[in-house]
């Protein structure tokens, strides 16, 4: 295997390990910190830029391997249909070339495919984390609004009770004042009635013999 296909294989292995780490069940806090670091770090951004360039070269290798496979397959079919193909070494050589062409095509193809899967998985999990954060904020805000509304209702009820109590106390004071005024008016009425009777001689003074 040539050096660039060996590097492609190492890149494919690294992608497989990264994918396993992405889908590994981690606690929410740890996962959030890891993805926040990966999405905000400048070093990770530079590494991602370098990987994009490397995937361009992997794409070129994939196209070259695909062309080689088509060419070797056509050559093998042509040799099979020819009448003079009786050499075992030629058959082995063609079969080996076909095998290497297919191997290189699958290697580079899976590397490109897994890069797309990794990118999509990363952004899906990142969106999920952001959605969970927004849900937590919304839940907290809803709880705070409920508590505030409950406190406002309690304050309103207390104010209503205070007003009712003040009205009751005012009515009680008015009733006491009315009772006092009625008693004073009754006493005054009795006094006036007694004086009136005395002035008209309606009161008889009887002395005992």
Automatic annotation (TrEMBL):
Keyword Transport (UniProt): yes
Transmembrane segments: 7-30, 42-63, 106-126
Gene Ontology biological-process entries: endoplasmic reticulum to Golgi vesicle-mediated transport; intracellular protein transport; protein localization to endoplasmic reticulum exit site
Domain Bap31/Bap29 cytoplasmic coiled-coil: 156-207
Record's compositionally biased regions (Basic and acidic residues): 149-177
GO cellular component term, pick one: endoplasmic reticulum membrane
Entry keywords, A to Z: Coiled coil, Endoplasmic reticulum, ER-Golgi transport, Membrane, Protein transport, Transmembrane, Transmembrane helix, Transport
Span list, region Disordered: 142-177
Pfam families: Bap31 (PF05529), Bap31_Bap29_C (PF18035)
Keyword flag Transmembrane: yes
Location of the protein in the cell: Endoplasmic reticulum membrane
Signal sequence residues: none
Superkingdom of this protein's organism: Eukaryota
Stretches assigned to the BAP29/BAP31 transmembrane domain: 1-137
Membrane topology: Multi-pass membrane protein
Family of this protein: Belongs to the BCAP29/BCAP31 family.
Record-linked PANTHER family: BCR-ASSOCIATED PROTEIN, BAP, ENDOPLASMIC RETICULUM TRANSMEMBRANE PROTEIN
Functional summary from the UniProt entry: May play a role in anterograde transport of membrane proteins from the endoplasmic reticulum to the Golgi.
The protein's name in its UniProt record: Endoplasmic reticulum transmembrane protein
Organism: Pisolithus microcarpus 441
């Amino acid at each position: 295997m040539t050096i660039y296909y060996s590097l492609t294989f190492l890149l494919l292995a690294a992608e497989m390990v990264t994918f396993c780490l992405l889908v590994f069940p981690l606690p929410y806090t740890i996962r959030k910190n890891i993805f926040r670091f990966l999405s905000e770090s400048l070093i990770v951004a530079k590494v991602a830029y370098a990987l994009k360039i490397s995937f361009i070269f992997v794409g070129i290798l994939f196209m070259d391997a695909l062309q080689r496979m088509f060419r070797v397959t056509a050559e093998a079919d042509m040799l099979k249909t020819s009448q003079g193909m009786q050499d075992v070494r030629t058959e082995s050589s063609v079969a080996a070339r076909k095998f290497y062409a297919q191997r290189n095509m699958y290697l580079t193809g899976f590397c490109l495919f897994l890069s797309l899967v990794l990118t999509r998985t990363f952004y899906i999990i990142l969106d999920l984390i952001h959605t969970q954060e927004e849900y937590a904020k919304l839940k907290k805000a809803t709880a705070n609004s409920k508590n505030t509304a409950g406190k406002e209702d309690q304050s309103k009820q207390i104010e209503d009770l205070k007003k009712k109590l003040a009205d009751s106390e005012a009515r009680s004071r008015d009733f006491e004042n009315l009772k006092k005024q009625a008693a004073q008016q009754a006493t005054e009425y009795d006094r006036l009635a007694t004086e009136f009777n005395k002035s008209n001689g309606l009161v008889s003074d009887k002395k005992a013999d």
